[in-house]
Write a structure and sequence with these properties.
This protein is α/β, with parallel strands linked by helices and 469 residues long. Helix content is 49%, strand content 11%. It is built from 22 helices and eleven strands. The strands form two sheets. Strands 5-2-1-6-7-8-10-11 form an eight-stranded mixed β-sheet, sandwiched between helices. Helix 20 crosses helix 22.
C-alpha cells in the first residue's frame, strides 16, 4: 500500500484545516477510515473535521494535546507503515453540547459523519426509534425543553441529550434556527441501508418534537448510505511503545489497522464533499450489493469466529481462522451467504480469498472478545437475511444456524464474556433448559424463527453437538 498524500506531514503540525465536517464517534475506526480518507483527499486542506467522542473526554483531551495528530500503524503481514493523518482539526468530548451545536450553526459545516455502532441508533425490533429506551425518553424531554430556544439549548438545557439520534436532532434544531443551509449526514456503521436507518430515527424523533422540524429536515438534510471496511483492533500499550521506539514520537493514542480499506457511498452532498475518491472511495448508485457482501461474508464470518472460535479456546481472528474446524465452518457459512449475493461467482471467490488473507494476518491482533460485543444488534443484519432466504428456498442452512447456536452458547457462558447492550434480556432468555432457551432467543431475534420447528431443532442439535477436537 502506497502512502497517500496527507494534509499535515509527520512531525509538522502545521495549520489545522477549517472545520467543514463534524463527526460523532471519535475512536479508532473513524481515525483509520474516514479521517484517513479525508487526509488522502487532494483538497484535504479545505475539509477539517471536528470529532466528538461518545461521552468520555479522555481521547478528546489526548488528541487535543497532540494537535489532532496521531500515528496510523498500517500493519501488513510482513511490515508496518507509519502514517500521520492530519484531518482532525478539533477533538471534543461528547458532553460538550455547546461546541456541538455551535458547529451545526456554521454554514461552512457541510457534512456530519457517524460511527456509533449498531446499538447507537436506538431502534426497536421494528426498526423505528425505540421510544421505550430510557435515554431516548430523556432526550425527548431535554429537546422539548429547548426546541424553540437555541440559546436555552446552548445554556445547557440540552446537556442531557446523549443518544446519537438526540444529538443529531439537537444539532439540526440549531442549524434550522441559524438558517445555516443544507447538510449531508453520512452513517459509517455496519448497518444495512444505514442512510435510511439514520434518516428514520432522526425523523421519528423530530416528529415527536415538531412536525414542522421533521419537514424542514426532509427538505434540507440528505442521508448518505455507505459501506465501510477496514479491520481496526484496539490499541495496546505495546503499540504505544512501538511508535515511540520506531518513530521517535510520543503518541498516546496511535491506531493500528490493516492495509486493506474500502469505502462505497451513495447519496447527495448538497454542500459539497472532500475528494475522498483520491483515497480510493467509490461513489455508486446502489450500495446494497457491496453492503451485503461485506456484512454477510466479512462481518458474518467475524461473528461466527467470535462465538464458535472463542468457545474452542481461541483469542484472535488469526488463531481461529487457522483452526481447520473453524475454517470449515466459515466456508460452509460463506457458501450459504454467497448464494444470496447478486454478484459473479468469480468475484465472490476472489473476495473470499482476500478475506482469508486478511483474517490470517497474525500481526493484526483482532480479539474475538471485541468482535463478540452486541450480538443482539449485529446478528439481525449479518445472519438473518441469509437464513430467511435459505428457508424460503426450503433449505435448513447449517452454516447460518451454527452462528446462532454459537451465540446462544456464548450467552450461556461459553467462550468470550458477554458484553451486549441488551445483555440483561438476552442472557435471561438463554438461561434454563436448552430447548426452551433456544426458542426464547430465536423469538427475541424474530418470532417467526421460534415457530419453525425444523430450524429450532437444528439449532438445539448444534448447541449440544460436541466440538470436534
Amino acid at each position: 500500500m502506497s502512502a497517500p498524500r496527507l494534509s499535515r506531514a509527520a512531525g509538522d503540525a502545521g495549520p489545522a484545516a477549517p472545520v467543514r465536517v463534524v463527526h460523532l464517534g471519535l475512536g479508532n475506526f473513524f481515525r483509520a477510515h474516514q479521517a484517513f480518507y479525508t487526509s488522502a483527499a487532494g483538497d484535504a486542506g479545505d475539509w477539517g473535521i471536528a470529532a466528538f467522542t461518545g461521552r468520555s473526554r479522555r481521547l478528546a483531551d489526548e488528541l487535543t494535546a497532540q494537535d489532532g495528530l496521531y500515528t496510523l500503524i498500517v500493519r501488513g503481514p510482513d511490515r508496518d507503515e507509519y502514517l500521520r493523518p492530519g484531518s482532525v482539526s478539533a477533538a471534543r468530548p461528547g458532553t460538550d453540547v455547546d461546541s456541538w451545536l455551535d458547529y451545526f450553526r456554521r454554514p461552512a459545516v457541510r457534512i456530519v459523519t457517524l460511527t456509533v455502532t449498531e446499538a447507537g441508533y436506538r431502534r426497536d425490533h421494528e426498526g423505528a426509534l425505540d421510544i421505550g429506551d430510557a435515554e431516548v425518553r430523556a432526550d425527548v424531554a431535554a429537546l422539548r425543553a429547548g426546541r424553540a430556544d437555541v440559546a436555552a439549548l446552548r445554556a445547557g438545557r440540552a446537556a442531557a441529550v446523549v443518544t446519537a439520534p438526540g444529538r443529531l436532532v439537537a444539532g439540526l434544531v440549531a442549524r434550522r434556527a441559524a438558517a445555516a443551509g443544507p447538510l449531508a449526514v453520512v452513517s459509517c456503521d455496519n448497518v444495512a441501508d444505514n442512510g435510511a436507518v439514520t434518516a428514520g430515527v432522526v425523523a421519528d424523533l423530530a416528529n415527536l418534537l415538531d412536525p414542522a422540524l421533521a419537514a424542514w429536515i426532509s427538505g434540507n438534510v440528505s442521508f448518505v448510505t455507505t459501506m465501510v471496511d477496514r479491520i481496526t483492533p484496539r490499541t495496546t500499550p505495546d503499540d504505544v511503545r512501538t511508535v515511540a521506539e520506531l518513530t521517535g514520537r510520543t503518541d498516546a493514542v496511535p491506531v493500528v489497522t490493516e492495509p486493506y480499506h474500502e469505502w462505497v457511498l451513495s447519496g447527495d452532498f448538497p454542500g459539497g464533499r472532500p475528494a475522498w475518491q483520491d483515497g480510493g472511495a467509490r461513489f455508486v448508485a446502489d450500495v446494497t450489493p457491496y453492503e451485503q457482501r461485506k456484512l454477510w461474508l466479512l462481518n458474518g464470518g467475524h461473528s461466527l469466529l467470535a462465538y464458535a472460535g472463542s468457545a474452542r479456546g481461541h483469542d484472535t481472528i488469526a488463531e481461529a481462522v487457522t483452526d481447520p474446524v473453524c475454517l470449515a465452518w466459515l466456508h460452509q457459512w460463506w457458501t450459504e451467504a454467497s448464494r444470496q449475493l447478486p454478484m459473479p461467482a468469480s468475484d465472490l471467490a476472489e473476495y473470499r480469498a482476500g478475506l482469508l488473507h486478511r483474517f490470517a494476518n497474525g500481526r493484526i491482533q483482532h480479539r474475538l472478545a471485541q468482535i463478540a460485543t452486541d450480538g443482539s444488534q449485529k446478528l439481525p443484519t449479518r445472519v438473518l437475511p441469509v437464513l430467511r432466504a435459505e428457508r424460503a428456498r426450503g433449505r435448513v442452512p447449517v452454516g447460518a444456524l451454527r452462528i446462532l447456536a454459537a451465540w446462544i452458547g456464548h450467552l450461556r457462558g461459553g467462550g468470550a464474556p458477554v458484553t451486549d447492550s441488551a445483555a440483561a434480556t438476552v442472557v435471561e432468555a438463554a438461561t434454563g433448559p436448552l430447548d426452551e432457551a433456544v426458542r426464547r432467543v430465536l423469538a427475541y431475534l424474530d418470532p417467526a424463527l421460534a415457530t419453525d420447528t425444523d430450524l429450532a431443532t437444528a439449532v438445539i442439535d448444534l448447541v449440544t453437538q460436541p466440538s470436534p477436537s
